[in-house]
Amino acid sequence: MPLDLDDIEPLLSDAEAAFRRGGQETEDGLDVSDAGFVQLRKACRSLTGGDQLLTDGFYTLAIEAAFTSVEKTFMFWLIKEGHQDPANPPQSHTTAIKRSATVGFIGTETADRLEELWTENRAQTYYQDGKATRERAETMVALANRIHTLIVDLVGVRHECVCD
Q1: Secondary structure in 3-state letters for 142-162
Q2: Which residues contact 38 (CB under 8 A, 6 or more apart)?
């Protein structure tokens, strides 16, 4: 029997309303008006979450969080440097990587390898039969931490970083 709207009402309505409604309790650290810092701090949260998920043995989610942190850290840099209009959201998860190469922030080989890593492994781990392992999660979290630290230090905004 297929899933029917009656099966998930009123929870679906509650979720829709929650995203429309203002004046809600926000996550600590994300209450900044600068679009770049919003991306930076979301990257921080993804990194912190990835570290915790790795510790707890949730390797699939740790890998997801690491990829998300990489994307958001590059997006932070693009917004801060005026290469990305925050009102015009990216068209794909790898847009920030490609755009960073287009404007010369990272080399083409680096961008190609990061994009291939995303395409081949993130999608395989999340959607298909690629198995999340401790080693894969550890290397992805380490890579995401390194990229995040390099960019935060380069821009000189360590004080805006909310990584734990």
Answers
A1: HHHHHHHHHHHHHHCCHHHCC
A2: 30, 32
Residue in this structure with the two tokens 């510790």, named with its chain if needed = 55
pLDDT tens for each residue of 86-124: 888 888 889 999 999 999 999 999 999 999 998 888 777
Angstrom distance (rounded) from CA 32 to CA 38: 6
Task: Determine the distance from the C-alpha atom of residue 98 to the mean position of all C-alpha atoms in its chain, rounded to a whole number.
Answer: 15
Cβ atoms of residues 164 and 48 within 8 Å: yes
Q: What is the value of pTM for the model shown?
A: 0.89
DSSP state of 115: H
Residue that has been written with the tokens 């961008």 in this structure: 111
| Cβ count within 10 A of residue 65 | 26
